[in-house]
Amino acid sequence: MEEEKSVSLTNAPTLGHSVIPIVNKLQDIFGQLGSQSTIELPQVAVVGSQSSGKSSVLEALVGRDFLPRGSDICTRRPLVLQLLQTKKGQEGGDQEFGEFLHLPNKRFYDFNEIRREIQAETDREAGGNKGVSDKQIRLKISSPNVLDITLVDLPGITKVPVGDQPTDIEARIRTMIMSYIKLPSCLILAVTPANADLANSDALQIAGMADPDGYRTIGIITKLDIMDRGTDARNFLLGKVIPLRLGYVGVVNRSQADINTNRSIKDALIAEEKFFQSHPVYNDLADRCGVPQLAKKLNQILVQHIKTVLPGLKSRISAALVSVAKEHASFGEITESKAGQGALLLNILSKYSEAFTSMIEGKNEEMSTSELSGGARIHYIFQNIFVKSLEEVDPCEDLTDDDIRTAIQNATGPKSALFVPEVPFEVLIRRQISRLMDPSLQCARFIYDELIKMSHRCMVNELQRFPVLRKCMDDVINNFLREGLEPSETMIGHVIEMEMDYINTSHPNFIGGSKAVETALQQVNSFKAAAPGPRKDSADSDKASASDRSLKSRALLARQVNGNVPDQNVRLAAEGERGMPTGTNNDTSKKSVSNGGSSWGISSIFGGSDSRMAIKENSTSKPFNEQPFSENLQSLERASSMIHLREPPSVLRPSETHSDQENIEIAVTKLLLRSYYDIVRKNVEDSVPKAIMHFLVNHTKRELHNVFIKKLYRENMIEEMLQEPDEVALKRKRTKEMLRVLQQAFRTLDELPLEAESIERGYSVSTDQTGLPKIRGLPSSSMYTSSGSSEYSYSPSPKNHRSRKSSHSGELQSPSFPNGDSKASGRTAGMYPTIDV
Ligand SMILES: Nc1nc2c(ncn2[C@@H]2O[C@H](COP(=O)(O)OP(=O)(O)OP(=O)(O)O)[C@@H](O)[C@H]2O)c(=O)[nH]1
């Protein structure tokens, strides 16, 4: 045992030993990146009939004696052997030991003890009498000289039940084996003893079921030393009997006698080498004979696997590299010198102003496609909010007919005016224009808010590291925008006041009095035409005749005064319900109305009945109204000869009844209001955005940079403003380190010795002074070239490469196993692609 320990794994051509440096490097890379994920190597399972030499092959590959072997001892439970690399120099890192899952915290340093525990644990579960169980035994072997890989030793296929074995033992074992080898990531070592009928190999049969295309099956022929005299496995090794994409390797393990005499693995390897040398039939098949060749083949498959997954790892790292580099750049470099800091501040101020301007103009790079931003929002506020709201306003909305009538009566003062003055129209239009003030000012406020929001969105990342500067800049821009808001509000005030100050009735778009009267008459006419016929009661008919008279006279006068009589037959459609007066006196004859004429401005001479005579007294003071007129008269008569006047009510309102003239006057007033209001509205819709753009938005664009420099570019303030919080310095340091690690990782991945030549050169393992192997590279799959039709031949020199066409040898990840030609190429001679890298 002592002697065996000194023959460490390092001296044997163990499985994956040449892949170790690469995998270690990858692990280092991912370790540094703080990621647990690393390359997952394929699992290797040995399958075959009972006593075919499976355990012996595994042991030889691991280079350790620890598995129960022997003619009467067999594998009866799956043994999952997890090799774990320990780091030399770490505590306990250079020791080799085993641990069982079922015996936690117990380390086995004696490998004979491990073997005994495997046997004991097998008996515990499967009984002592040949019973088989599918419950795994999990063994972890830690060693500085192994690759992190999992090997599975499976029970051998048996046909005749013995001992406690059930009658369907073969089916059970096959199912158990399949559950492991069907996994696309499982590499199958199909072990067939040379002293049995090779063509009927159970191992190849079951492997063929799990891996029909043969991308992950290696054929292993054991017991070449005990073949019938005169027979050999040459044709089999050459793949002439059952072709196999990854080919065959012939091995000579220790015999039972060797085991009994404790022959070491090292000695067994030497004996194996001698065997092949002394058998001329295998002389030219050196590349497919011996455990070292098997290890080499496996290494090469592992390398191929790593190569397959490497691009994915690289792209992950490069993506991380890009994002970390971006983050690092956002923290900028530390600037110590005064001049440097000054330049940095200037640069930030300029960039900010540019970014702000670009945002308004819609030219910033990070423009959103999911919502409106920057200048587009300003436009939206102007057009879709401000203009739209003004357009929806009806200037007569809050003016009742009574309001208008009262205004008209008030405007004529104490006398019956000769003309209906312009005063009521002006009073009312001013009142409506003044209503435009609030939305206009609100619009300016909205734009101001937008600009503030934009300023917060400018250079968010870049200014993260300078919170003091950010605060100062925010203060400056807030003040500046507030200062810009004032003149725009003043301007808006002026615009509205100008409109109120001079009512330009000569505006070309203004309807004018004559046209308004004409239209009003048409409206009243069509309204009457639609109204029910005259009422029968005498009072109403009296009124009707009175108003008829008055209209007639007005029409006459109008004709005389203006010389402009409207066509009596004109019956134009009403301009709309909005303009219709709501008077109660609807029974005026059509004729009288049509004769009303264009009498605007001379209503005072339209007739004797002054509509203002019909006073409706306030209900709070109605002494006269409470009793009929006759009674009032009687009481007056009863009184002395003195004539008493009733007290005027404190609040006087026009009477409820409207004369025709009033109706027309109301309609005319409304027409004039609407017409003029439209003019003003257009002006305001145009001028307010202009004022806001000029005094606030564009002023900010023009002046912001200057203001920044004036307020913030002060020598004594620069250092303070460019102060970074500790957290930023820490983040910068961390991202810088991460960037370095990622760059290193990227380079390391690029420089991994995965090229054919370096791998081939490096395969020869020599030990240095410390006894550790000097591994210069890995064996390459390119060393295997297709020779002739159905076989692989080993060409030791790269010069012998006949083809460099890529293949999928050793690609154990499921997507890497193409199955396009599976049926044809699976195990058919002459269809194998060249294995190359
Ligand atoms: N002469 C000779 N004997 C071998 C060779 N390989 C294996 N043996 C012997 O064959 C017997 C069975 O070997 P194992 O390695 O236990 O075979 P196994 O396939 O693991 O057996 P089970 O687990 O029972 O299926 C042992 O006595 C080995 O010493 C070989 O190449 N040559």
Report on this model:
By secondary structure, the chain is α/β, with parallel strands linked by helices. It is about 50% helix and about 10% strand. It is built from 25 helices and 15 strands. The protein has helices at about 1-5, 20-30, 55-60, 110-125, 170-180, 200-210, 235, 255-260, 265-280, 290-330, 340-360, 375-390, 400-410, 425-435, 435-455, 465-500, 515-530, 540-560, 590-595, 630-640, 660-710, 715-720, 725-750, 755-760, 820-825; strands at about 45-50, 80-85, 95-100, 105-110, 135-145, 150-155, 185-195, 215-220, 250, 615, 650-655, 765, 775, 785, 790-795. The strands form four sheets. A nine-stranded mixed sheet has the order 4-3-5-2-6-1-7-8-9, with helices on both faces. A hairpin with a 5-residue loop joins strand 12 and strand 13 (about 775). Helix 14 (about 425-435) runs parallel beside helix 21 (about 660-710). About 35% of the residues are buried. Residues about 1-10, about 535-630 and about 755-835 have low confidence and may be disordered. Guanosine-5'-triphosphate (GTP) binds near residues 56, 252, 254 and 255.
Q: What percent of residues are in strands? A: 5-15%
Across the major sheet, the strand order is 4-3-5-2-6-1-7-8-9
Q: Helical proportion?
A: 40-55%
Mean pLDDT: 71
Give the assembly state of these chains.
single chain
> Which residues sit in consecutive blocks of at least 5 with pLDDT less than 50?
1-12, 533-630, 756-837
Per DSSP, the total helix count is: 25
Q: List ligands, each type once.
A: guanosine-5'-triphosphate
Please identify the structural class as seen in this structure: alpha/beta
Q: State the shape.
A: elongated
- Report how far apart the termini are: 42 Å
